[in-house]
Write the structure tokens for this entry.
Amino acid sequence: MKLWGGRFTKETNQLVHNFNASISFDQKFYAQDIRGSIAHVTMLAKQGILTEAERDAIIDGLSSIQNDIESGALIIDGSSEDIHSFVESHLIDRIGDVGKKLHTGRSRNDQVALDMKLYTRDEIGETDALLVKLLHTLLKLMEENLDTYMPGFTHLQKAQPVTLAHHLGAYFEMFCRDRGRLADIRRRMNTCPLGAGALAGTTYPLDRDYTASLLGFDGPTGNSMDSVSDRDYLIEFLSALATIMMHLSRFCEEIILWNSNEYRFVELDDSYSTGSSIMPQKKNPDIAELIRGKTGRVYGALQSLLVTMKGLPLAYNKDMQEDKELSFDAMDTVKGCLALFEGMLSTMKFNATVMEASAKKGFTNATDAADYLVNHGVPFRDAHGMVGQLVLMCIERNIALDDLPLEDYRAVSPVFGPDIYEAISLKTCVEKRVTAGAPGRQSMENAIRQYRTYLEQ
Ligand code: ARG
């Protein structure tokens, strides 16, 4: 059934119908569409615009449609233009003329704005739950790896030693911020567009506050033109999703490096890696690579919607139908990636011995050797130069600072004593770093305590 045949004298060209139709993708929010319609007629009856009997007949009809879609008895086919027409025409088939009253005081413009908001709000909740699961996994790994030493890098060059707990803590912070963004968006978007009509409200005495409260909104949207043409919340959500992907992608990049033959910091579980059709020895990090790869797709969705919206005059324009496929794709992609990433991380083995051996090489304790001199009264800039000379000696002999004889230290500065070896041991280097946010045990235990409290809230 068409919702708008009256003023037309010719059938729609088939290609036009296909091009215009959105049912193939907007069926994804059939449940939200029905939920919105039930709230709408409940409000209409409260306002005396429908009788209670009419309301009940419509609600029964809508519920039976939902049940039948869910049981598979009713298939959403391509003959309707969109999910709104599909539901309305099936309602009229089932309950007769009273079904024709459903759309009183409503337009598809405020209807679709509502459906997409309800859908997005649900998606925010699901994405958040997946982030929480990932944070729990991260926290568990952190608690287990407070003493797992590893090199920290800058420019992908070994810089200073950290612990695995500390490294994972960086991602914990990122995913916490992601949750914060989702919460902000949910709070800002939580207003109900229903009642805005096509663009200019309606002449019926609608109670928009009531409809909003029935649907769990904080209240109705303001200006009716903005209500039907606002897609900011979706752009914000896509931006938050893009940021989640950026975080996952950086983590994946590290896991790919760590899993390489050169690093051997981790070993992926067999159930989360794949083989090669030609090279029998291979065990590839395809899941991490795919997550990194899919990041581009989610960025694309954000960019695409920004471009779609940039030239639109007020209020509704059909261009806005383009918000759906790309948003659905991005939402599903991020949920899938979060779930797979959590599985990959929780089954992965960390090779503590290799990590620690790597931290011992590469002069990650050079800063601490300079700090030793500073603690004995040498100005930092001079200390930096002296340790530079010591590093050069070590490079020539292919040894670590820990293995350089004391005479060589003393030849560079008489200030060095036998306690230098203790001062630059890996353990000292890490454990002395106890400023807030640093990798030393004391700081990490504090951080973990805060993270635990945060997750328990
Ligand atoms: N499928 C449309 C969309 O997604 C529904 C709104 C249609 N409104 C209209 N005036 N043609 O935007």
